[in-house]
Amino acid sequence: MDRVGKYEFIAEPFHCDFSGHLCLGHLGNQMLNAADFHSTDRGFGMKYLMNIHRSWVLSRLAIEMTSMPAQYEHFTVETWVEDAMKFFTQRNFQVSDLDGNVYGYGRSVWAMIDTETRQPTDIYAIDNGAIDQWIVKDKPCPIEKGDRVKMNPNTELVRTIDTYYHDIDINGHVNSIKYIEHVIDLWDISWYREHQIKRFDIAYVAETHQGDKLHFYREQTGEQTFCIRLVKTDQNTQENTEVCRCKILFIS
After folding, report:
1. Which long-range contacts (CB under 8 A, 24 or more apart) does 116-124 make?
2. Among 38, 96, 114, 164, which is most buried by a count of CB atoms within 10 Å?
3. What is the chain written as a DSSP string?
4. pLDDT at position 118, please?
5. pLDDT, tens digit, for every residue of 132-168?
6. How far, in Å, CA of 199 to CA of 201, rounded?
7. Which domains, and CATH codes, for the chain?
8. Of 104, 103, 123, nearest in space to 113 by CA
9. What pTM did the predictor assign?
10. Confidence grade of residue 234 (pLDDT, cut at 50, 70, 90)
């Protein structure tokens, strides 16, 4: 089996925005689908891990695109493991049309956790470290790795939302892509008529559960660059905890 997985998807109309192009959140979902297909086929996917009380959790994701697939267009997502350490693994993505023209790339960092303790666990304990045989060092991913998002502590609060059933994934917390969609919604459609997302970075810090409130703090750090900090209010303790940070680069 090839160390690089390649999977075909379609930009369905109800996954596209007003411009007729695939929404970034749905592209993120297809990247995560490709990651699951790739890991499952090679013996270290969620289907196997759940049986031994383990799970993959997304720690960081960076998506950088020059264009997006149009509605009804078929496209492929290639994915491969670039590196693995005891507690984290780095996985990359390439998004292309069926002729091989590249739309963009993605970089991600994943942790493996114990689903009972919710603590990181040793990736190399799975199948005697078999993940090593799938590492690809020589396939380029020409976008920069995600960097730490630095923000002013007095950043403006711009929105607070509740969390509901449809926000929650198989791990019992707010789905990784839901954060991205909620952040993108901080700008209305008039903004997106004049701008498109060039790059989106997100780093996850803590989990949010159904019933918690999410607070969005936004800071403009460049002409078309924004940083966002998400803080949750725990529904039971009423304590505030930072859950993730994002950075978005727009182009006109």
Report:
1. 116/53, 118/207, 120/87, 121/54, 121/87, 122/86, 122/87, 123/84, 123/85, 123/86, 123/87, 123/88, 123/89, 124/84, 124/86
2. 38
3. --SSEEEEEE--GGGB-TTSBB-HHHHHHHHHHHHHHHHHHTT-SHHHHGGGTEEEEEEEEEEEES--PBTT-EEEEEEEEEEE-SSEEEEEEEEEETTS-EEEEEEEEEEEEETTT--B--GGGGGGGGGGGGB-SSS---SPPP------TTPEEEEEEE--GGGB-TTSSB-HHHHHHHHHTTS-HHHHHH-EEEEEEEEE-S---TT-EEEEEEEEEETTEEEEEEEEE-TTT--EEEEEEEEEEEE-
4. 87
5. 999 999 999 999 998 889 999 889 999 999 999 999 9
6. 7
7. 5-134 (3.10.129.10), 156-251 (3.10.129.10)
8. 123
9. 0.95
10. very high
pLDDT tens-digit map of 97-123:
999 999 999 999 999 999 899 899 999
Integer CA distances (angstroms), 80 to 26, 169, 229, in order: 20, 23, 29
Residue of higher predicted confidence among 45 and 178? 178
- In the chain, the amino acid numbered 247 is K
**Which residue is it, tokens 């007003």?**
18
pLDDT higher than threshold 90 for residue 34 = yes
